[in-house]
Fold this sequence. Notes:
Layout: H1 11-24, E1 33-35, H2 36-43, H3 47-59, E2 63-65, E3 70-73, H4 78-102, H5 105-115, H6 127-142, H7 147-167, H8 174-193, H9 196-208, H10 211-218
Antiparallel strand pairs: 1-3, 2-3
Helix pairs in contact: 1-3, 4-7, 4-8, 4-9, 4-10, 5-6, 5-8, 6-7, 7-10, 8-9
Amino acid sequence: MAEPAEPFMTKSDFAYTTLREKILSGEFKPGEVLNQATLARAIGISTTPLREGLRRLKSEGLVELDAHRDARVTELTAEEARDLLELRRSLDPLAVALAAQRRTKADIQEIRAAVKGVEPLLSNPGVDDLIAHRRFHAALYRASHNDLLITTLDGLWDKADRYRRLGLEVVRSEEERDQKTVEHHQLVEHVIAGDSDAAAAVMHQHISTSLGAKAASRLGVSPTATPRALP
């Protein structure tokens, strides 16, 4: 989920933040048409800053703009679901492996506090549930102390949020949800113990069986597929 808005921002920043939250939360559905005049009135600004906000969202791949005065929320695609899954299967394990090597006492305290608030997501999670999951993973990312990696994973998390909601439409068994809880606690244990290999292995499994993987499967992508080597 998006972070809370800053108390002082430009109107275009306000438009960007407001619309981005509505898209990532699922309030604006994939493929939904957004009339700019109607939208500007609804959030209390003129169309000029609204268009500036929409252009920022277009640069992030969240909306498409046409030659008229409409915008459209970008559809979910099998290709993007696959790309996100491939990236996260590589980068999330790297992040926790580095975290196991570089975590500080402050990192450990933050990770332990964050995992306490994480519960397996149900089919219609509340905002607090989604924030708790992001907070936990973000604490692991920050413990890597690799700023480029942290920024990249933060951006991937935003893009993946819409696919998580699609993945939640697949009913998960209690056993599957319990396994996610086990994996969260294993990640904490391995990072604190400094075991990079074990942390990376658990995270790879965690991503490979994630809601994003379920979404990819629903869109026709095999979650276990791996890229073919070049000849």
